[in-house]
Every structure is written in structure tokens, then in C-alpha cells.
Predict the structure of DUF2306 domain-containing protein.
Amino acid sequence: MDMLNQIFLYTHITAGFIGLAAYWVPIFAKKGAVNHRRFGKAFLYAGYVVVTAAVLSIGTRAIRYALSDYSFEQLESFWGFAIFLGYLSLVTFIMLRFGTLVLWEKKDPTKLASAANLALGYGAIIGSVAVIAYAVLVRPEVTVVLLALSPIGLLVGPQIVGYFKGRETSKRGWWYSHMGAMIGAGIAFHTAFLVFGATRLFDIGVEGPFAFVPWILPTLIGVPANMIWERHYRKKFDDPKRSKLEAPA
């Protein structure tokens, strides 16, 4: 099982680097152009591989530890890590999937309101609640990190459900949703890289009061960036954000 876990781990790392490299091309490329679509797909598929490999890696280790004589207390750091990475993988998958789905039906998103698609939104909410419950009840070493990142699902889950149920009032709702979802997936990618990749690759050790900076820095940058970017495009399209009551019939 150790060899199998190593395969999953190196697959995860390789796909992660490919995804990180591909991510920035569509960000700056002309939207809808060849490079935007080509590298966007590369990021999408790399993301799916990253998520799958991460889940399989966590799963094989969890099975091995469950069959061992270790107590829960002895493996507390692993379970905290597993919860964090599992939640990060869930959010990444949901963002990638939602960001792709909104391109399928731009005029009437309610046509996408299948049980499987709505499960993306509800899954994000349930994932957040589960992480919060684990952090509060168990209080692992990474409690601060789990509580800092857990609201993501509570924020994006209702937005996804609302989008599929037709609560988006703008005709370009698919544009803002696609952009926000991909930025969200990018936040997850960069969080994983800073926490698990950069610290080992460049031998960077952040200690003391700044120890949690790598865990939350992408979120602190990405969320405001998404808000600024959406505001920019709404101004460009002369498309101010309206409530359902203010939307034109």
C-alpha cells in the first residue's frame, strides 16, 4: 500500500504543477480566445487529477491507519491533515465542475438544475459544516486553519444552488460565475502549493504568529481580487448588480 500511496502522491504533485502553470494563462489571455480555452482545459483536467489523486492518497493512508493499533490521539495530526486536504479537494472539485457547467447553458441556468448539479452546492455547505464541527469538537492542531477556510463552502454553496434555481438576474451571470469559480479553484490550488509544496521544495519554514499565513494567504488575496474583477467587468458591460426585484422583466 505504501507504493500505491507514493504513486498517488507523485501523480498529485505532477498534476498540481501542471495546473499551476496552466492557471495563469487564461487569467491574462483574451477571454474566449484559443489560449484561454486551451490552457483553461489543461487547468481543468489537471485539477481533476489532483483531486482524484489526493482523495486516493488520503484514503489509502486512512485505511492503513484504521487497520493499525494506533489510537485516534496518536493519529490526531494525520486526521486533521486529512480533513483539511479532503475539504480542499471537495471545494476544488466543486469549483471546477460548477465553473464548467455554467458554460453549458448561458441563457437559462435552470436547465442545469439536476439533482447531481444541485448536490455541488449542498455538498459545499455540508463540507463546511462538517469541518467546523470537527474543529470545534476535536480541536486539532490545525483548528485555526480549519475554521479560517471552512466558511468557503457556506459562501459558495448557496450561490451555486441559487444560480441553478434561476436567482441570477444578469444575462452575463454565467460570465461572473465562471470567473469566480475558476478563481476559487485557483485559491485552492495555491493554498495547497504554499502549504505542502513551497515549504518543502524551497525549505521555507514559517513559524510563530505567521505560521498560518501560507494556509490563508491565497484566500486573503483571491477573494478581494474576484470582487474587484467582477466589479470591473460589470462596469465594462454596464451591468450593475441587481436584486431579483430590481431585475428587468
Summary: The chain has a mean pLDDT of 85. Helices lie at 2-28, 34-66, 76-101, 115-138, 143-149, 151-164, 173-201, 213-236.
